[in-house]
Amino acid sequence: MERTVDAGPDLATLAGAVGDATRIRMLELLMEGRSLVAKELAFGTGVSPATATVHLKRLEQARLIRSTRQGRNKVFRLATPTVARMVEALMTVAVRGPRASATPEPLRAARYCYDHLAGRLGMGITDALVRDGHLALRRRAFALTPSGEGWFEAFGIELAPLRDQRRQFAHRCLDWSERRDHLAGALGAALASRVFSLGWVERQPDSRGLRVTPSGQRGLRRHFGITP
Question: Does residue 112 sit in the same domain as residue 142?
């Protein structure tokens, strides 16, 4: 008599979807948070557009990415922040010993982790906010303190709309290169957007890496006491 296995998460399908070098590279490229067309993902993974289309269909069927129309183009992005956290967790597990030193320096210095700041820049900002008493560590998230409420508002970030979003407010995300938690969630995304709008960081071409501008260096020293 065959044993009945209780239905649960379909890990085999998920593993099959991400267990391919081209598809996992596509997910890495989409970790920058921007939408990309199939040709961009084909170029970034070194495959033909036709082959890229097959891989993208597989990822979409697994609900890891979603597509929308922008004019004549079909663009792709990660389906949810949860998928981004999964990819970041896989990167954390994958970094072992000597391989850590092979990580490109621009990514270790400053990068986007889906929609928030990571690398030494993200960790430096998070550490400064905790050090100055604006964030407090909790088991699974950061807590915004009363002083933090005032600080974020003064920095140009409205908190009420963030709390209305259907996502975690101040999630703790494990940084795969620094191996510690940085600020993510709605608050982390708003902080990254504000830093970008101030012109403190610029995107690196064809990379999740970020370049800190001269005005960013001054602003980061003044507001966070860090020198990137």
Answer: yes
- b/e map of 181-195 (b: 16 or more CB within 10 Å)? bbbbbbbbbbbbeeb
- If one counts the domains in the chain, the total is 2
pLDDT digits (tens, 9 = 90+) for 145-199: 999 999 999 999 999 999 988 888 999 988 877 888 999 999 999 999 999 999 9
Per DSSP (E only), the strands in the chain are 36-37, 65-70, 73-78, 111-113, 116-118, 135-137, 142-144, 172-174, 181-183, 201-203, 210-212
Residues 25, 44: Cα–Cα separation, whole Å: 8
> Which range marks the domain in which residue 54 is found?
11-79
Same domain, 56 and 112: no
Are 24 and 14 in contact by the 8 Å Cβ rule? The answer is: no
